[in-house]
Amino acid sequence: MYRPILRQSAKQLSCAARPAAIRGYAAHTTPQQFNWEDPLNSASLLTEEELAISETAEAYCQERMLPRVLQAYRDEHYDKKILEEMGELGLLGATIKGYDCAGVSNVASGLITKAVERVDSGYRSGMSVQSSLVMGGIDEFGTQEQKDKFLPKMAKGKLLGAFGLTEPNHGSDPGSMETTAKPHPTKKGYLSLSGAKTWITNSPIADVLLVWAKYHETGKIRGFLVERSECPPGTLETPPIKNKNGLRASLTGMIQLDECPVPAANMFPDVEGLRGPFTCLNSARFGIAWGTIGALEDCIARTRTYALERKQFKGNPIAKYQLVQKKLADATTDAAFGTLAAIQVGRLKDKGEAAPEMISMIKRQNCDRALFNSRILQEVFGGNAVSDEYGIGRHVANLFVTQTYEGQSDIHSLILGRAITGLQAFV
Ligand code: TGC
Ligand code: FAD
Fold first, then answer.
1. Which of 96, 226, 249, 415 is the most exposed place for a label (fewest CB within 10 A)?
2. Which pathway does the UniProt entry assign to this protein (predicted)?
């Protein structure tokens, strides 16, 4: 249902607002010609539908998101209308089939993510939680009733989600979580959830919170859909975490549960243990691998423009100096390699052939290279790097967070090391 809308809206939005990367695809008349915006011609690996979806997403993000991000970042404000707008375009839960979702390929979904993060990682964060972590979890593990109840409204951005795994004392090691689900002492057919989650994207505004807790009967981790509107006063609090020095255009908070009654029907029926949250994370980590390359590409484009305009020593543009050119060459190479790797893993994911370690590899690599290169490119702006008007400092601060959440980079190194050697690192 949404496929035509995705294409149609691409045409409706003006070409002038399309980012240079997309214009570059159309300008490809001679394949041999080098295009700094797509150096390895990754566009040639995409289907027509994926290109159309990418155009729709890029046009929306550049026209509607970009103009509000600077003020939102300064004010530490997240405009939740963004998710409704994305819902209207069919960009939420885009890989899910049915339930008013677009049912597109993983590569198409990656391209959407890249377009959003080209503007800001915080906006991508809000979308990732909605699409991959909560809608993805319900689609994969929910009952038919849960899917029918939540997915269509979430696809429209009318119902907002949050994903509660991390706890104050257990971040990299969620298997040791302390949040529990026990039979409710007075309400028949209900469980009582108690515990605290922290650093939770969207939690202060979420309508439905997917909380992972240890189930009394087995001591194993299970997933629970906590509906804010159904929680009696004092049983659910979601205070925001303010004064962040990164990801300021995204809302982050805690989830505090104090004997919160949750219907047993809101528990995921079958999945037990960390396989539940990590399956959701596989999709979200895959999205971050794409998104961070979008942020890096924006840093490259901004730096190139600045270096061509800024003149030092006998009126030369600083882009003429080889040290500046090397910074751009390094960053552009990493962005191009990162895109190709993400496409390959996306194609394997579509066929059900992507191992979680492949996703760890591209999440770690693309986050690390985006952070490293953006920090280096920031130097090209000299003193102006310190002004938020130039945008690059915002990406650098955001990219530190992307390297930290959904498994900090060193944790993904250990996941890879374990897979390479066969030796358990987390004991
Ligand atoms: P381990 O023994 O490795 O595994 C336990 C069980 O889980 C299964 N599993 C997976 N299943 C599917 N996909 C994966 N990627 C999986 N990884 C593990 C595994 O097969 C096993 O299943 P079973 O059936 O045998 O029980 O568990 P461990 O405790 O040794 O895990 C260690 C480690 C490091 C791998 C893990 O804890 C880890 O990845 N830590 C990082 C934590 C993390 O990523 N947190 C993310 C929080 S959510 C978030 O950050 C959202 S930010 C959103 C935004 O704003 O964008
Ligand atoms: P720790 O686990 O304390 O790690 C600290 C350092 O120690 C890291 O460098 C880590 O690599 C290192 N370390 C830990 N163990 C080992 C080891 N065995 N070997 C070597 N090094 C090790 N979580 C959610 O559940 N939902 C969300 O929506 C969400 N959104 C977030 C939004 C933001 C803005 C941020 C900052 C975080 C968010 N998180 C969320 C939490 C995030 O996933 C965690 O911060 C992350 O998993 C790291 O956990 P931690 O902060 O407890 O760090």
1. 415
2. Amino-acid metabolism; tryptophan metabolism; Amino-acid metabolism; lysine degradation
Residues recognised as catalytic: 406
Asked whether the beta carbons of 267 and 216 are under 8 A apart, the reply is no
Distances in whole angstroms, Cα of residue 30 to Cα of each of 19, 27, 47:
21, 9, 19
Q: N- to C-terminal Cα distance for the chain?
A: 48
Provide the β-strand partners of residue 191.
183, 262
Amino acid at 156: K
- Candidate from 116, 169, 274 with most ligand 1 atoms within 8 A of CB, to mutate: 274
283 lines ligand 1 (CB under 6 A): no
Pairing mode of beta strands 208-215, 236-237:
unpaired
Determine phi and psi for 191, rounding to 5 degrees.
Answer: -105, 160
Contact 84, 64 (CB under 8 A): no
Q: In which residue are the tokens 């390359």 written?
A: 293
Ligand 1 and 174: CB distance under 6 A: yes
Mutate to test the pocket of ligand 2, among 199, 221, 252, 363 (most ligand atoms within 8 A of CB): 199
Is the CB of 287 inside a 6 Å radius of any atom of ligand 1? no
User: What span, in angstroms and rounded, lies between the C-alpha atoms of 230 and 6?
Assistant: 35
Torsional sign, CA 277, 278, 281, 283 = negative
Residues 6+ apart with CB under 8 A from 362: 286, 289, 338, 341, 342, 345
Kindly list the structural domains of the chain, giving each domain's residue range(s) and its CATH number in brackets, ordered by start: 2-13+38-155 (1.10.540.10), 161-266 (2.40.110.10), 275-421 (1.20.140.10)
Question: pTM for this one?
Answer: 0.94
Distance (Å) from CA 173 to ligand 1 centroid: 8
416 within ligand 1 shell (Cβ under 6 A):
no
In whole angstroms, give the CA distance from residue 94 to residue 188.
37
H helical segments located in 232-311: 275-309
Q: Report how far residue 104's alpha carbon sits from residue 94's, in angstroms, rounded to the nearest whole number.
A: 6
The per-residue DSSP string of 293-332 comes to HHHHHHHHHHHHHHHHH-B-STT-BGGGSHHHHHHHHHHH
Of residues 395 and 216, more confidently modeled: 395
As a residue count, the chain comes to 427
